[in-house]
Specification:
alpha/beta, two-stranded antiparallel ribbon, globular, about 230 residues, disordered N terminus, 8 helices, about 25% strand
């Protein structure tokens, strides 16, 4: 990735865990700059769509910054973070411990590319969130995510997705097209997904795309709901 492209995309896309400093590294708490930047805008969307109370599952929680930011705003929701990475789960647990919030549960080891992953998630859930995962994972991850969501979400339950997306087969910004190319160079199975294709995959599992919301740095919030 060139320096100019990295600067264009630095606002949102860093899938890597970066230690903040020696103290937090020793406590296993990690931080991603993108998560720090996008937590606020995402929270504003969530305030308008999440129920007042219930259970929420986050897939690919990464560092744990998102669940630590959302849980205080929704104290009557029990938050279940998850990640297939042991390193990430340690970081999630550290963020949860630092928050001292009773509504963040211990992180689960869930991998949506594994058959039957939803069986270990518990549920049913009133909401399922997945932030900045689909473009840095194979398409099988999207299929697995939707299959699990169709089983885990309660009727009328909400799915929230965040990240860069193509619309109608076209990139919404030149920087997203360049970012897509750089992702595919790193791994041919990665790439910016088309929201219509994601919606079609979801529809096959009884999930309907209600709307998309334009977000900072050419990202989108996709709001889907399981049919009653």
């Amino acid at each position: 990735m060139t320096r100019d492209l990295e600067e264009k995309r630095r606002q949102e896309h860093s899938p890597y865990l970066v230690a903040v400093d020696d103290e937090t590294r020793n406590r296993e708490r990690q931080a991603a700059p993108a998560a720090e930047r996008n937590s606020g805008p995402i929270l504003e969307v969530l305030r308008g769509i999440l129920p007042d109370a219930g259970k929420a599952l986050e897939i690919a929680s990464g560092t744990g910054q998102h669940v630590a930011a959302f849980a205080p705003a929704f104290p009557e929701i029990d938050w279940q973070p998850s990640d297939p990475s042991p390193e990430a789960r340690k970081s999630i647990a550290a963020w949860a411990a630092d928050s001292a919030l009773a509504n963040i549960l211990a992180p689960l080891a869930l991998d949506v590319t594994e058959a039957g992953w939803a069986e270990g998630a518990g549920g049913p859930f009133d909401a399922l969130l997945c932030i900045n995962m689909l473009h840095i994972s194979p398409w099988a991850a999207c299929e697995g995510l939707m299959q699990g969501a169709g089983r885990l979400l309660a009727p009328g339950g909400l799915m929230y997705l965040y990240g860069p997306y193509k619309r109608g087969g076209e990139h919404t910004a030149p920087s997203n097209a360049e970012f897509d190319a750089s992702l595919r160079q790193r791994d041919p199975s990665w790439g910016v997904r088309d929201m219509d294709e994601v919606a079609a995959c979801a529809a096959g599992q009884g999930l309907v795309l209600e709307r998309s919301v334009d977000m900072p740095a050419n990202n989108f919030s996709l709001i889907l709901r399981r049919e009653a």
